[in-house]
Amino acid sequence: GDFEDVVIVGNGMTDGDGRDAWSLEDSKCCDRGGDYTWEVDDEEAHGGEQSVKVIGNIATGTAWHAKVRHEGASMQGGQTYTVAFWAKAEEARVVELSVQMQQAPWDFFQGGDYNLTDEWTEYTTTFVANVDIDKTMWVGLAIAGDDVDFWIDDFRFWEGALDDEIREDPRPKAVSPAGLLTTTWSDVRSR
């Protein structure tokens, strides 16, 4: 979700090691009348060097007619999950969260509206899963309600509440500096 090592090919995106990462359902595929494209943007980014810009050519007025989504997600019923991402738009617009089964019967598990502005802002939703899903749902944004261009970056989906996200490098440090006295090598004397 940081979009640093991605390649967009048509309506699909792969990450640096070739795995499928994201897809764009632009609504031309389903004769819904909308038209959206996307590109990796190396001039706008929340973190790192690049983000994904979603370009609205024709809106349908119905958000779910087009989506930017990560497929193959899983969740376990009764567990807490969080979706968090950074976004900005050329001007105010709405996108909708879409956590949904990616096959019939297309069950919808979580949604919500996000009012994007022209400043990078973090958007979050935390929910409790009501069913077990094993790699057959997507997590993404429904976008066809508007044709205003927008950017997304640092998109995350994890088990746990917002304050459970690991924000620091989880690798152990060689020495914990807590409670230690600082000094310089010139102050250390040998006997």
Produce the secondary structure layout:
Layout lengths: L6 E3 L2 E3 L5 E6 L9 E7 L9 E8 L8 E9 L4 E10 L3 E9 L6 E9 L4 E8 L4 E10 L7 E10 L32
Can you put this structure into words, describing what you see?
There is one protein chain. The strands form two sheets. The protein has a seven-stranded antiparallel beta sheet, with no helix packed on it. The chain is 0% helix and 48% strand. It starts with 6 loop residues before the first strand and ends in a 32-residue tail after the last strand. It is globular and about 40 Å long. It is an all-beta fold. The chain has no helices and twelve strands. Strand 2 (12-14) and strand 3 (20-25) form a beta hairpin.
Spans where pLDDT lies below 50 across 5 or more residues: 169-173, 180-185
**Rg:** 20 Å
Major β-sheet profile: 7 strands, antiparallel
Strand order of the largest sheet: 1-2-3-6-11-8-9
Number of strands: 12
